[in-house]
Amino acid sequence: MLNYSETERDKWVDMVQKIVDALVNKQSQNYVMTDEDEKIYRYGYVLLCEVFLNLVIALAIGMVFSKTKEVFFFLGMYIPLRSFCGGWHANKIWKCTVISNVILLFQVYGIENIKMYLSMRGMLLIMFVNLVCVYFISPVDTEMKKISQDEKITYKRKIKIILVFHMIIALITVLSDADEFVFSLMFVYIIQNVMLLMEIIKHRKCYFRRNGKLEKVEK
User: Fold this and answer.
1) How far is CA 184 from CA 5, 157, 175, 191, in A?
2) DSSP of 64-129
3) Distances (CA, A) of 101 to 4, 34, 128
4) Are 95 and 49 in contact (CB under 8 A)?
5) CA distance 187 to 191
6) Mean pLDDT computed over every residue of the chain
């Protein structure tokens, strides 16, 4: 028997599928699409639906908790960094939507209940430690998105630019005594580190001895 969450998930999947079908059918009336073109457009439209839904939910979370600026500040700092650093991704769109918005709820909760226990120096120290970890670990590819060596070099260069930009933003927020934004930026790097480490652990390589020989197996 389906529970409530599974029912809602199926409704969401069906709704997205109907929207994507309508968009693809409308586009196919204008010109002939190959099977490959259709797959690309379907994937793109699904992503657009996901982004739109996430933004609507993010806006709702921000408005309910009176933290709209902080929520969108977090998204503005996190999304570009996440795009080039990589890391763990949910294997289903609905899971990604749920996890993304749970992260936003944790951010809001942290601003309300954890920030008060951290000094400005403490938040900056935590942010800097996580920033250094992100710099040295990323980019990390996934099964769904493999990164070539040339792409890694390009991504690393863009990550450096983003980190420098974030440090400038951090300086501005500190000088403005906007500790809620400092906390949000700190949270960006904590979450990004978690995603990187989750992907590394997922595909970690272990060694075992078979017939006296050391062999390497990827899990």
Assistant:
1) 29, 24, 16, 10
2) HTT-HHHHHHHHHHHHHHHHHHB----SSHHHHHHHHHHHHHHHHHHHHHTGGGS-HHHHHHHHHH
3) 18, 36, 25
4) no
5) 6
6) 80
Point out the least confidently predicted range of 37-41, 81-85, 122-126, 151-155: 37-41
Tokens of 101: 């918005």
Is the separation of the CB atoms in 20 and 45 below 8 Å?
Answer: yes
Three-state DSSP at 209 gives: strand
CA distance 6 to 156: 39
Query: How many angstroms separate the CA atoms of 52 and 158, rounded?
Result: 25
Query: CA 50 to CA 54: how far, in whole Å?
Result: 6
| Integer Cα distance of 167 and 160 in angstroms | 11
Taking only the tens place, the pLDDT of each residue in 29-49 is 666 566 666 666 766 777 677
Q: Which residues pair with 213 in a beta bridge?
A: 210
**Integer-rounded Cα radius of gyration of the chain:** 21
Distance linking the first and last C-alpha atoms of the chain: 33
pLDDT band at 12; cut points 50, 70, 90: low
64-102 pLDDT, tens digit each: 999 999 999 999 999 899 888 988 877 777 777 888 889
pLDDT at 49: 74
What is the tens place of the pLDDT at every residue in 176-198?
A: 999 999 999 999 999 999 999 98
> What tokens appear for 93 in the block?
């769109």
